[in-house]
Automatic annotation (TrEMBL):
<comment type="subunit">
    <text>Interacts with ADAM10; the interaction influences ADAM10 substrate specificity, endocytosis and turnover.</text>
</comment>
<comment type="similarity">
    <text>Belongs to the tetraspanin (TM4SF) family.</text>
</comment>
<keyword id="KW-1015">Disulfide bond</keyword>
<keyword id="KW-0967">Endosome</keyword>
<keyword id="KW-0325">Glycoprotein</keyword>
<keyword id="KW-1133">Transmembrane helix</keyword>
<dbReference type="Pfam" id="PF00335">
    <property type="entry name" value="Tetraspanin"/>
</dbReference>
<dbReference type="InterPro" id="IPR008952">
    <property type="entry name" value="Tetraspanin_EC2_sf"/>
</dbReference>
<feature type="transmembrane region" description="Helical">
    <location>
        <begin position="54"/>
        <end position="79"/>
    </location>
</feature>
<feature type="transmembrane region" description="Helical">
    <location>
        <begin position="91"/>
        <end position="113"/>
    </location>
</feature>
<feature type="transmembrane region" description="Helical">
    <location>
        <begin position="19"/>
        <end position="42"/>
    </location>
</feature>
<protein>
    <recommendedName>
        <fullName>Tetraspanin-15</fullName>
    </recommendedName>
</protein>
<keyword id="KW-1003">Cell membrane</keyword>
<comment type="function">
    <text>Part of TspanC8 subgroup, composed of 6 members that interact with the transmembrane metalloprotease ADAM10. This interaction is required for ADAM10 exit from the endoplasmic reticulum and for enzymatic maturation and trafficking to the cell surface as well as substrate specificity. Different TspanC8/ADAM10 complexes have distinct substrates. Promotes ADAM10-mediated cleavage of CDH2. Negatively regulates ligand-induced Notch activity probably by regulating ADAM10 activity.</text>
</comment>
<keyword id="KW-0472">Membrane</keyword>
<dbReference type="GO" id="GO:0005886">
    <property type="term" value="C:plasma membrane"/>
</dbReference>
<dbReference type="GO" id="GO:0019899">
    <property type="term" value="F:enzyme binding"/>
</dbReference>
Amino acid sequence: MAQGSECRNSLLYYYSVKFALSTYATLFSIIGLVILCIGIYAEVERQKHKTLEGMFLAPAIILLLLGFTMFSVSFVGMVGSLRDNRTLLKIFFWVLLVIFITELLLIFIEIIFENKMNAVLHSNIQEGIRHYYDDLDFKNILDFVQEKFSCCGGDEYRDWEVNLYHSCNGSGPLACGVPYTCCIRKVPGEVINTLCGYRTLDKERLELLDVIHVRGCIHAVGLWLKDNFESTLSIVCSLLLPQGDKGAPKDRASPWPPASLLHPSCIPPASLLHPSCIPPAHRSLQLNFSCSICNPISQQRTLMAFTHSFCIFRESPAVHNHTAAPAPCLLFW
């Protein structure tokens, strides 16, 4: 009963891990495929009005890379888990390990070199602001961030001077102003004046505290992440822990399955003792027998032939009371 219970527990663990891995890989395969399709559509639309060359400023490129990576890696894991293919599972494990280490390195780099990373981010945002009205993708993203996080520009509101339409040297109605998404809405849901940011770039911060958001979006988003540290940590862990929990299947020292999976036909007569005991030659017995082994991977029984020299050592059975194979697991027969 104890060995049968152990066998059932091992089966339960095996199928639990297989189901969890298959579900995780399938879910992320679907998500990756959806992101990939959105990226393809966004890239087709972007090519019609292509103005930006930087990868950071092309959200469609980011979606394409993210979707392709998620789908391809998760698909390998899904097929490997469903087919119990050790090679695919090892590929899945090592790729996830590389991604996991890369994510940790990026987090440490962001923490250690925060000022330099902010400078790089600020430079890219300024490049996007320079082409604000030429790239619809970046415009929509920046407008959303400015409204959501109550901010304006990258480092501060004066970043809008790099845009030709908002430069104080311009002569249009937008000159020396900021987009309406930078304006403060005093009443939620009110219809906002699109020229509310008119002539604000040439004024000091204190004069604009009730008109526009003077804080840059880099600082606003960073502050939001710090204020919502628990939520941010939960999201990061939900992405990292499944990756760190996947392990490559361990190779067994023997090609045979566990002894607990042997069919009763594999058990030799009780008088045959363990082959490790070496009696005199006249007390040894050469035995040829076949048995049916149930493979938990393929769920098929395999007929295997064994040839062992078992010893008959009746003089001290208490010392060498070991059978050639443990009790069978009847669950497989």
